[in-house]
Amino acid sequence: MFRIEPRVQGVTPELLEMYEAVSPSTIGHFTDFGFIHGLQPLFRPIQLLGNAVTVRIPHLDSTAIRHALELARPGDVLVVDMSGDDDRACWGEFRTYAAMAKQIAGVVVSGSVTDVRAITKLGFPVYSRGISAKTTRAMELEGEVNTTVSVAGVSVQPGDLVVGDDDGLFVVNPRDAGEIGLKAIEKQRREEVKRREYGFVNDTGPAGI
Ligand SMILES: O=C([O-])CC(=O)C(=O)O
Ligand SMILES: [Mg+2]
Fold it and tell me: Cβ(88) to ligand 1 under 6 A?
């Protein structure tokens, strides 16, 4: 059975603008909740920021990803819960072309991805637990889009804010994102003062100053 719920726009333009300047590692100074433990970026440097479109697939059948790609809008992040399968890849080069054509910001996969060289060359932001040559199939069995999913023990709702860089990923509920973002930016300001005291400038990360 398929359950395809409408897309949720939880992330506002103001939050997006604010989080352009927020590092996940600064958020990690304030909260553990929402950190997606164990997922790695496919390449570095990497940046990911956007509004979650959630997908849940049973281990073998990736049909629901196609439905999610159909309803996603520019700036969305597809967050795929593979129901505990870490070994099989549900994302690769051709899904990346489809996503880039829709200006999707990136993809987060609880399991594995494939076609690493092609995706890296395309520079499309992907986070996953692993890499595998064994893939899912489009079998039209079952799946969900825009329901609550679980990735690395973190519950992700459609419309959540996803923010990632070289250090990893946080998923933030838009209700809390304003407060967390302000605290993070304030901390980054203080860090910049300290950095300059040590005689350094930050020319690698988000501005935050
Ligand atoms: O089809 C898949 O499931 C993954 C893949 O190889 C691609 O997107 O190119
Ligand atoms: Mg492929």
Answer: no
pLDDT tens-digit readout, 124-135: 999 999 999 999
Ranges of each domain in the chain: 2-11+33-172
Average pLDDT over every residue of 19-36:
97
Residues 97/121, Cβ–Cβ less than 8 Å:
no
Q: What is the ipTM of this complex?
A: 0.95
Ligand nearest to the CA of 96: 1
Model pTM?
0.95
CB of 191 sitting under 6 A from ligand 1 = no
User: For 2-11+33-172, which CATH superfamily applies?
Assistant: Ribonuclease E inhibitor RraA/RraA-like (3.50.30.40)
74: preceding bond cis by omega (within 30 degrees): no
pLDDT the model gives residue 137? 96
Contacts of 87 (CB under 8 A, 6+ apart): 111, 112, 130, 132, 134
188 lines ligand 1 (CB under 6 A): no
Question: 171 is written with which tokens?
Answer: 């998923």
pLDDT at position 59, please?
Answer: 83
